[in-house]
Amino acid sequence: IGTVSKLTGVGAITLRAWERRYGLIEPVRKESGHRLYTRQHIDQINRITALTQQGIRISQIRPEMLESAVASDDGPAADQWKGYIDSMLAAIISFDEGRVEEIYNEALAIHPIGMVTRKLLTPLLVELGLRWEGGEPSSIAEEHFFAFYLRNKLGARFHHRPRKNSGPLLLLDGLPGEHHDFGLLLFALAAIEAGYRVLPFGPDMPLQSLAQIAHSKHCTAIVLSGAVEPPGSVLDDDLPSLVTASRLPVFVGGLSSVYGCDAITKAGAEPLGRDIDHGLQRLQEVLA
After folding, report:
1. DSSP sequence for 216-249
2. pLDDT per residue rounded down to tens, the chain (288 residues)
3. I need a labelling partner for 128 at 20 to 30 A (CA). Which of 121, 145, 217, 263 fits?
4. Torsion of CA 74, 77, 78, 81, to 10 degrees
5. What stretch of H or E contains 106?
């Protein structure tokens, strides 16, 4: 429960109340009484947090409200986002790029781009990951198909980003063993929207050279990202060395920070979890 509290920003006392009083989260209980949480539990906690931030009282939240891929308002808005997700997922499964583009443009015509990222693109990546975990035969091809499309879209957004931010400079890097960079791009765009400046590197970057680069560019912090379980040598050797050599706050986000939360903390770094908004909030708290 301490690990989950760190990843979601929700205190252990609150998590116990959500479990006992409201029946919203049901962790696995070991014989010793310790609670064990899955990635699905973490997603549910993030959805509960999003709902409460929208003004919904915790007593009004029902377990069935957490089954949706999007933590959104009740009513037409929630139906609209669910419709976008279902339609785009169907287009991805049939490898119909024209239809994917049509749905994406329709969403952008109505909603701000940051909202489209949070309520459509990010949940889609989660859904595709769940299909892959479930052993769907074409899931790898689907993920690669959408990743190529999304990388082009995010790359264009990054290229046309505002360049007048004056906030802290973040060095962004994909963890060794990571082959996708769209998670890093999503975080970079959200950080820029929050006023940060970013110095991004691609996926599968060795950590040994980052400290020197960060100091030469006067970075305020180093943010690492990954969607796979990092090799043991990265968490046990490379990450502690980076923390020591850089003498800067080092953060790890994405699904990698869920897999290796305890090892990341032991190395002296800060796990951010897979929720970008919570990650940025936690980063701001530490830098403050």
Report:
1. HTT-SEEEEE-SSPPPHHIIIIIHHHHHHHH-S-
2. 888 887 787 888 888 888 888 888 888 888 888 888 887 788 788 788 877 776 788 888 887 777 643 444 445 666 788 889 999 999 999 999 999 999 999 998 888 877 888 788 888 877 777 777 677 777 888 888 988 898 888 888 888 887 888 899 999 999 988 877 778 888 998 899 889 999 999 888 889 999 999 999 999 999 999 877 788 889 999 999 999 999 999 999 988 888 888 899 999 999 998 888 888 988 999 998
3. 263
4. -170
5. helix 97-110
Sheet holding 169-174, edge to edge: 197-200, 169-174, 221-225, 250-253, 270-273
Question: CA 243, 184, 262, 48 torsion: positive or negative?
Answer: positive
CA dihedral 138, 72, 29, 236 (to 10 degrees): 70
SS3 136: coil
Structure token pair of residue 91: 């287009």
Give yes or no for a contact between 254 and 227, defined as CB atoms under 8 angstroms apart: yes
| 106 and 91 Cβ atoms separated by less than 8 Å | no
